[in-house]
Amino acid sequence: MAQYKIFVDGVVGTTGLRIHERLSGDPTIQLLTLPEAERKDLNARLAKISEADLTFLCLPDQASKEIITLAPPTARICDTSTAFRTAPQWVYGLCELTGQAEKIAQANRVAVPGCHATGFISLVRPLVEKGALAADYPLSCHSLTGYSGGGKAMIADYQNPDRANEFNAPRIYGLTLSHKHLPEMKAMTGIAHAPIFSPIVADFYSGMIVSVPVPFSAFSADYQSGSAVVQLFEKYYANRPLVTVHSYGTSPENGMLAANGLAGRDNLEIFVFSNADHLVLTARFDNLGKGASGAAVQCMNLMLGRAETAGLVL
């Protein structure tokens, strides 16, 4: 017997479709749908939002802003766009941050994090929050993602049998250094300046690795070793079911870390590598899982009082 009515507004998009697919086999959930002809009908969508126990907005930023101005304040909504991630009246949906799961559970408006931001914040926030890393240290970040992160248009480009040769090689983008995830990366870590951010897309469907290089000289006296930094992460993420912190120096036998290693799963792994002078902090996860639809379902679970990992692949 269904206990919850869920509406996905924007079900034809990559994230909306994944959420719909995840929930469609759950006997406790009734998915509310609209006929094709009504999917862009504002009044019909608002009626479903009012009927639902929770709504996922999987829309472009402007479309999300438009419907939120009209949606009932009591409606529980998870938005997957970038429109509200730093809005003060919204709760940021990275459940693993200190006290955040409790805030999400009580919220009517939750902004699901961006994929690149999820990796960066997961690595940097604990260090700044616990005083291991100064908030004003100038950081850089590299993030390698599968092409599904670019949505339906990019997926079509990569899967086109007549695609251009450039799609065969990794491609750096965000070359104006103004990527749309930067505001949340700064706001949710507490750092004084946004990082120098280099996102890269490559020819694999899903998965990602986010890396932040930091010299030991940037760390406070208690964190002058890789093992000490790992211990901080272990304490911070203790009892958080979706995050695995690997022992210091853990690496695959071939010495390489594949970005698609968690494709199809909803958890996130943290690795710490170093030499005598520098650390590389690395988060690996699926851009469509913990970086998108998996995170959205995790937020939904908390908001509805369900088990946090219900419907997730760990």
From TrEMBL:
<comment type="similarity">
    <text>Belongs to the NAGSA dehydrogenase family. Type 2 subfamily.</text>
</comment>
<dbReference type="GO" id="GO:0006526">
    <property type="term" value="P:L-arginine biosynthetic process"/>
</dbReference>
<keyword id="KW-0560">Oxidoreductase</keyword>
<keyword id="KW-0963">Cytoplasm</keyword>
<dbReference type="GO" id="GO:0051287">
    <property type="term" value="F:NAD binding"/>
</dbReference>
<feature type="domain" description="Semialdehyde dehydrogenase NAD-binding">
    <location>
        <begin position="5"/>
        <end position="105"/>
    </location>
</feature>
<keyword id="KW-0055">Arginine biosynthesis</keyword>
<dbReference type="GO" id="GO:0005737">
    <property type="term" value="C:cytoplasm"/>
</dbReference>
<dbReference type="InterPro" id="IPR036291">
    <property type="entry name" value="NAD(P)-bd_dom_sf"/>
</dbReference>
<dbReference type="InterPro" id="IPR010136">
    <property type="entry name" value="AGPR_type-2"/>
</dbReference>
<dbReference type="Pfam" id="PF01118">
    <property type="entry name" value="Semialdhyde_dh"/>
</dbReference>
<comment type="pathway">
    <text>Amino-acid biosynthesis; L-arginine biosynthesis; N(2)-acetyl-L-ornithine from L-glutamate: step 3/4.</text>
</comment>
<protein>
    <recommendedName>
        <fullName>N-acetyl-gamma-glutamyl-phosphate reductase</fullName>
        <ecNumber>1.2.1.38</ecNumber>
    </recommendedName>
</protein>
<dbReference type="InterPro" id="IPR000534">
    <property type="entry name" value="Semialdehyde_DH_NAD-bd"/>
</dbReference>
<keyword id="KW-0028">Amino-acid biosynthesis</keyword>
<dbReference type="GO" id="GO:0003942">
    <property type="term" value="F:N-acetyl-gamma-glutamyl-phosphate reductase activity"/>
</dbReference>
<dbReference type="Pfam" id="PF22698">
    <property type="entry name" value="Semialdhyde_dhC_1"/>
</dbReference>
<keyword id="KW-0521">NADP</keyword>
<comment type="function">
    <text>Catalyzes the NADPH-dependent reduction of N-acetyl-5-glutamyl phosphate to yield N-acetyl-L-glutamate 5-semialdehyde.</text>
</comment>
<feature type="active site">
    <location>
        <position position="115"/>
    </location>
</feature>
<dbReference type="InterPro" id="IPR050085">
    <property type="entry name" value="AGPR"/>
</dbReference>
<dbReference type="InterPro" id="IPR058924">
    <property type="entry name" value="AGPR_dimerisation_dom"/>
</dbReference>
